[in-house]
Design brief:
Oligomer: single chain
Number of helices: 5
Radius of gyration: 21 Å
Largest sheet: none
Helix content: 55-70%
Number of strands: 0
Strand content: under 5%
Length: about 110
């Protein structure tokens, strides 16, 4: 994951921690130091459980995923290329139902 993406996630988590838990963090250090990021994930999850803040846990998961991505073998080359441009792989379309009503006539 790009450093700028880690920084964006860290900044969002920083704001949530400041507003909901009264905790001030260092976003730049969170984006470049894995140990500090892991500790902030722990703090965010703890605050999420204490205050029932689901969004804190969600962003803690995002930061953890940014530091510990899925193994490259589990991600296909096509998925990696789509992820670089911000798209997801489409699921294969099912064939049309022959019993479904159809539009009869031409387009004008």
């Amino acid at each position: 994951m790009l450093a700028s993406e880690k920084l964006a996630i860290a900044a969002h988590l920083h704001v949530l921690l400041r507003r909901k838990a009264g905790r001030v963090t260092d976003t730049e250090w969170m984006a470049i130091n894995a140990d500090y990021a892991a500790e902030m994930v722990r703090v965010a999850r703890s605050a999420a459980q204490e205050g029932a803040h689901a969004d804190l846990a969600e962003w803690a998961d995002k930061l953890e995923q940014a530091w510990n991505p899925r193994p490259a073998a589990a991600v296909s080359a096509r998925e990696q290329a789509l992820a670089r441009v911000g798209l997801r792989a489409a699921t294969p379309a099912s064939p049309p139902d022959p019993e479904a009503p159809r539009y009869i006539g031409g387009l004008r």
